Amino acid sequence: MSKSLPQPPERGGDASTPAILDRVSSAADPLQHSASRLSSRAQHTQRDAVDGNDSNSSHEGNADSAYASDSVTAFTASATSSIFHYRFENGRRYHAYRAGQYLLPNDAQEQERLELQHYIWRLLLNGRLYTAPLPSPSRSPNMRILDLGTGTGIWAIDMADEFPSAAVAGVDLSPIQPEWVPNNCRFHIDDYEDTWTYSRKERFDYIHGRALGGTSSNWHRFYRQVMDNLKPGGWVEMHEYDACIYSQDDSLDRAPCTKEWMHKLDSASKQHGKQINVARFHKEWIAKAGFRHVREDVHMIPIGSWARDPFLKELGRLEFIHMQMSVDSHTPALFTRILNYSSEQAKDLMEGVKRELRNRDLRLISCYRVIIGQKAGDCTYN
């Protein structure tokens, strides 16, 4: 492929990286806050009850990092405990609400992967949570922020901490977010494939989505809804990675299991009606939806510690762990439900892919993309 690995970004302070699941060394802010939660937050994802409080309750200015009490949980849903009646298969756990719409698991192992992915994104973006030109927290006291496919909620929580006077909402099919969160952050169990019902007064200043490949059957409709629910001048930002592996030499040709896995993963997701390898299309979709100032930044990350540059070497070490976990999470349901693989056949292919990822003679690469676009108009943040 023609794209080369990126030059490492300028970084201040300690160049080492924080602990990731006890696998790498510790470091200083701004990433320490996220990293410190990676191995512990998954313990706080189970709920005994569902709070049906109004999801549009007011968020007062000067909201600090205080956390919700038992009487005011951060979780809201118009559902019953049936959303916890998870589906178990192939040793993994899957969501119950709108069962089968999303074919990746939601168990502790997957939550750990999502937390690691969050840290990789922050490291890649030099500690930032976003790249859109948002105003500083002190200049945006009434900003409304929406996180689509929030997962464990870690991005929404970090964003709520960074913008303590903003109202941050996270939406997902799975109730795997912690109860104890900043008091300006709320989570809702919902399907953003449905028609959005926010009123004009509830429009958002900023809408964020991460790793949403395989979640939508109609991306043009998705971006129309994003456009309709942004305030004038509001921003959309998507953080996506290609469900594909690259190389700059013949490494991919020497990884037959990986090539087979990539092809069949994409084929299965298409048959399911929600293609997973769509990151490369988001820039075009956002532009066609009518957004202006559309920009895409592409980051190529080594899988493994083979890069010479210390920053890329560390990124690659983390991406290697992430890819091993991704193979385990992306394969079982798509291959057994859609392609009619037996559990043993799926396991054999997964082991083959992970074996190739461990091969130090192969220099494989992941591709991460950041895409932003702005709705026309002037944003007043009120």
TrEMBL record:
Pfam families: Methyltransf_23
UniProt GO MF annotations: methyltransferase activity
InterPro entries in the cross-refs: SAM-dependent_MTases_sf
Superkingdom of this protein's organism: Eukaryota
Region (Disordered): 1-65
Biased composition (Polar residues): 33-43
Gene3D superfamilies: Vaccinia Virus protein VP39
Annotated family: Belongs to the methyltransferase superfamily. LaeA methyltransferase family.
Protein name listed in UniProt: Methyltransferase domain-containing protein
Organism of provenance: Ophiocordyceps australis
Highest classification ranks of the organism: Eukaryota, Fungi, Dikarya, Ascomycota, Pezizomycotina
